[in-house]
Amino acid sequence: MEQMRFKYPLGMLCRVLEVSASGFHARRSRAPSRRAQQEPRLEIEIRAAHQRTRQTYGPQRELAAHGVRIGVHRIKRLRRKLGLCCKQRRRFKATTDSRHRLPVAENLLGQSFEAPSPSQTWLSDMTYIPTEEGWLYLVGQKDLCTRKIVGYAMGERMMRNLVIASLRRAVEATRPPAGLVHHSDRGSQYCSWEYRQMLEALGMKASMSGTGNCYDNAPMESFWETLKTELVFHRRFATRQQAVIHSVLNNCA
After folding, report:
1. Among candidates 225, 229, 226, which has minimal Cα distance to 54?
2. Residue 6 confidence (pLDDT) above 70
3. 229: nearest Cα among 211, 248, 252
4. Measured between alpha carbons, how far is 158 from 137 in angstroms, rounded to an integer?
């Protein structure tokens, strides 16, 4: 109505909108409500939280951690007003080649992802990070009890040497006892003779997921999703080395 009054007579607007002229003038002279006065500060807080979360998550928990109490519906409304949205780019690249005739181990976990103590069960998997030079492959070894990555390796080729390097780094860091269950997918890198020989020499029991069943290694898949959402999807890397430095500095592996 404030904008239309310059085009139409005030009396006409009041009749059409069914409001009184005195009510209109009272509204113009009334101070903004307490809620309205909060909006500029909340917009600043929401913009800051959006940047702190790398533009990847809704900022409700981030705001609460900084002492800002605000409802989720109000956050959504203000984010729409500010034009803020999460950036989650997803690009698919297969990292598993199970079309081979190498020996495959039995699934010893059966989707039971619990371990009472560290160095009892490790999960391993391979993922990728896109760069302008090409793919950077990342292999991780995750302790099922502590949920920590105990070993990793990065390289430009998806070879068995990469998974061997990640396992060697995990063993050097934790010195696990014999009998550890090592679970992975059925990729040729994990089924290779060299890798199986290394597991046997370390006294580890090999376990492998079913064909094409990502749920058989769900905790590792979940970790990759979190890592990429927070550190990869919103970034563009010019070189593989840039991605390596960024990943290590942010403790992503």
Report:
1. 229
2. no
3. 252
4. 6
What residue has token string 């139409």?
8
CA R_g for the chain: 28
- Tens digit of pLDDT for each residue in 49-105? 777 776 666 676 777 777 888 888 888 888 888 887 766 555 545 556 566 678 899
Residue found under tokens 């949920």 = 147
Give the separation between CA 229 and CA 162, rounded to whole angstroms. 23
How many helices (H) and strands (E) the chain has is answered by: 10, 5
Q: Is 147 helix (H, G, I), strand (E, B) or coil?
A: coil
- Which homologous superfamily is 121-249 in? Ribonuclease H-like superfamily/Ribonuclease H (3.30.420.10)
- Quote the pTM value: 0.62
Let me know if 40 is exposed, middle or buried by CB neighbors in 10 A (0-12, 13-18, 19+).
exposed
User: Nearest 5°: CA angle at 252, between 250 and 253?
Assistant: 130
Sorted by where each begins, the domain ranges of the chain are 4-82, 121-249
248 vs 109, 138, 154, 157, CA distance in Å?
A: 30, 11, 10, 19
DSSP classification of residue 6: G
- In eight-state DSSP terms, residue 93 is -
The sheet that has 121-131: what strands, in order across it?
A: 149-155, 134-143, 121-131, 181-184, 205-208
